[in-house]
Amino acid sequence: MQDAFVQSRAWSYLHVVLVLFSFRFFPIWLSLLADITSASNIAFLIIDVQNCFLSGGSLAVNEGDDVIPIINDIRCKYETQFSLVVLSQDWHCSDHISFASQHPGSSPLQVIQLYYGQNKTLCQLEAACDVKYSVNQTLWPDHCVINTTSANFGGNLTRKTSDRVIRKGYNCKVDSYSAFFDNGGFEHTELHSLLQSSGIEVVFVAGLASDYCVYYTSVDAVNLGKFVKWIITYHKCNVNDYAYMAIYAFT
Ligand SMILES: [Zn+2]
């Protein structure tokens, strides 16, 4: 993830310090969080903690269930520090373009190229289309289908009536890792305007998975810039341990 961040546009104008804390040092990490929560107008973004990405799900993140008590602990301890809590929800059509099942002869994790025309509609056949955009698409098992238990939030995840939910990936023809934009950058969700209207200056990001939806949400948050001071996410660092990655992005 660090390498990917170095490659991102964000690196060019933000000073980013990566701090890794192992699971056994978690209380230290919490005390650090206490220091940084002196800032005002903080939003806590909880990304895609849904059954499809949890144990038993069709696209389960390895040991991803471990993020739930961490997120719950953060909410328990720092709830009053957050002006806004937002949960993102992957929300796909049953025939979503990202599903390997929709591409005969393909298999999950295979990467294909999708082509879009001038009006950002998917080209069914590249040769019969005036291609304006191309998007790499990793194919996934069917997951997080609209109105199924797969798309529900994890049952143990703390939720409150004041939480806001941002759905993404509901365009059947384009995938969406980030909670801000789809993968083609064609359309945006209401997240950015929600943060702006709420006067958010600081964003914490946690959830699943650190290499896809948390990562791309974080990069977009940094690139959107003015309200981002730092980001926190979750990362499995090796086969024996977990790490919690705190990313301080000073604008
Ligand atoms: Zn998805």
From TrEMBL:
Record's keyword terms, sorted: Hydrolase, Membrane, Metal-binding, Pyridine nucleotide biosynthesis, Transmembrane, Transmembrane helix
Pfam families referenced in this protein's UniProt entry, alphabetically: Isochorismatase (PF00857)
Enzyme Commission number, as recorded: 3.5.1.19
Entries under InterPro entries matching the protein: Isochorismatase-like_dom, Isochorismatase-like_sf, Isochorismatase_Nicotinamidase
Taxonomic superkingdom: Eukaryota
Occurrences of domain Isochorismatase-like (ranges): 43-228
Keyword Transport appears in the UniProt entry: no
Segments traversing the membrane: 12-32
GO molecular function: metal ion binding; nicotinamidase activity
GO annotation, biological process: pyridine nucleotide biosynthetic process
Pathway listed: Cofactor biosynthesis; nicotinate biosynthesis; nicotinate from nicotinamide: step 1/1
Stored Gene3D superfamilies: Isochorismatase-like
Family the UniProt entry places it in: Belongs to the isochorismatase family.
PANTHER family, sorted: LD05707P (PTHR11080:SF2), PYRAZINAMIDASE/NICOTINAMIDASE (PTHR11080)
Protein name: nicotinamidase
